[in-house]
């Protein structure tokens, strides 16, 4: 599938109608999502034929993108049941089978090394402090091959240090810097739209026999 | 692969499956994928899970030479990817706590005292 095609499929997805600000629910735009998964597949072969988990899947954008790029099995995890319903509808629209789990990632227990790749656009930690790192930590425990994640560029040093030193990642690489347009979704948003600089990261987890 | 996440539970896998409704889906067969997954799967758990959903074709004992058999791969494929629990529950083997499955989605959220 070409990048433009992927982007256009993702552009048709239903987004949050009533986003919950405590969960920092922001839709991952088709532009970012398509480029993220496209790089994961074309530069690293981390998607096609693999088991992919979308952490904090929201309306399912990243997981569905993985599926469109021929991931063999996709699992979406989110703490919010309304998001999961939306993800379910979006999957149906695209005629894609996506496994969904209603769970809090900070206490996810997973047996075995089934997940190859984790993709995510985690909460940035503006509401619940440290939320972004909890997501990353869990991702690195669960994935056997790679973790792709978006974090604010302003946190770059912190993310790199924590991933390598505390979460035992073998590598932590910023693939590129992107502008995430945050639309005026919540009442506390003053401007119509704001561009946040985010880094697209690829982490490689440590290979362990028994993790989590 | 989901395991009971209640605090203090040491042996939360495999979750026992309680079936109220399951569906059989059609999924494209991919033998490379199956061969790749084989060493990562807890085989006994898969056999039990498939049985709970009425599929008893999987052999109890397996070894990797069976991956050469098309017939075995088809059964493996069916049990792993095509049997889907729609309504029911996943039960913690240690505490008996039920995690409800509705519309195919298991709810693994914990109560305050379980974290």
From TrEMBL, chain A:
Q: Does the keyword Metal-binding apply?
A: no
Q: Respond yes or no to whether keyword Methyltransferase is given for this record.
A: yes
A single MF term (Gene Ontology): rRNA (adenine-N6-)-methyltransferase activity
Q: Which Pfam families match?
A: MTS
Q: Which UniProt keywords apply?
A: Methyltransferase, Transferase
Report domain Methyltransferase small positions: 48-134
Matching InterPro entries, A to Z? DNA_methylase_N6_adenine_CS, rRNA_MeTrfase/Polyamine_Synth, SAM-dependent_MTases_sf, Small_mtfrase_dom
Q: What CDD domains does the annotation carry?
A: AdoMet_MTases
This chain belongs to the protein called Methyltransferase-like protein 5
**Native source species:** Thalictrum thalictroides
UniProtKB/TrEMBL annotation, chain B:
| Pfam families to which the protein is assigned, alphabetical | Trm112p
Organism encoding this protein: Thalictrum thalictroides
Can you state the subunit structure given in the record? Interacts with TRM9.
In alphabetical order, the GO MF annotations are: methyltransferase activity; protein heterodimerization activity
What the entry lists under Gene3D superfamilies is as follows: 2.20.25.10
Q: What family does this chain come from, according to its entry?
A: Belongs to the TRM112 family.
Q: Which domain of life is it from?
A: Eukaryota
Q: What is this protein called?
A: Multifunctional methyltransferase subunit trm112-like protein
Query: Mind giving the lineage of the organism this protein is from?
Result: Eukaryota, Viridiplantae, Streptophyta, Embryophyta, Tracheophyta
Q: Among its keywords, does the record have Methyltransferase?
A: yes
Keywords annotated in UniProt: Methyltransferase, Transferase
Annotated GO biological process: rRNA (guanine-N7)-methylation; tRNA methylation
């Amino acid at each position: 599938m070409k990048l433009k095609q992927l982007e256009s499929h993702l552009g048709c997805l239903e987004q949050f109608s009533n986003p919950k600000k405590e969960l920092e629910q922001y839709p991952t735009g088709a532009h970012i999502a398509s480029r993220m998964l496209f790089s994961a597949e074309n530069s690293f072969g981390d998607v096609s034929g693999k088991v992919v988990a979308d952490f904090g899947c929201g309306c399912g954008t990243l997981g569905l993108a993985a599926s469109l790029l021929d991931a063999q099995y996709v699992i979406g995890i989110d703490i919010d049941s309304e998001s999961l319903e939306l993800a379910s509808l979006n999957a149906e629209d695209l005629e894609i089978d996506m496994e969904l789990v209603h769970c809090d990632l900070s206490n996810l227990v997973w047996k075995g090394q089934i997940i190859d790749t984790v993709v995510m656009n985690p909460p940035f930690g503006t509401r619940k402090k440290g939320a972004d790192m909890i997501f990353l930590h869990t991702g690195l425990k669960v994935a056997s091959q790679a973790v792709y994640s978006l974090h604010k560029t302003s946190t770059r040093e912190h993310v790199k240090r924590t991933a390598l030193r505390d979460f035992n990642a073998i590598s932590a690489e910023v693939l590129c810097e992107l502008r995430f347009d945050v639309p005026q979704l919540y009442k506390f948003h003053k401007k119509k739209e704001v561009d946040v600089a985010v880094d697209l990261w690829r982490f490689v987890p440590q290979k362990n026999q028994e993790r989590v | 692969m989901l395991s009971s996440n209640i605090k203090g539970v040491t042996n939360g896998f495999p979750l026992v499956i309680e079936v109220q409704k399951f569906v059989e889906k059609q999924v494209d067969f991919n033998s490379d994928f199956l061969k790749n997954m084989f060493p990562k799967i807890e085989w006994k758990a898969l056999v039990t899970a498939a049985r709970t959903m009425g599929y008893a074709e999987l052999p109890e004992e397996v070894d990797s030479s069976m991956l050469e058999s098309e017939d075995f791969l088809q059964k493996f494929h069916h049990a792993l990817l095509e049997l889907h629990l729609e309504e029911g529950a996943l039960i913690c083997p240690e505490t008996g706590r039920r995690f409800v499955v509705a519309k195919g989605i298991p709810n693994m959220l914990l109560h305050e005292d379980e974290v």
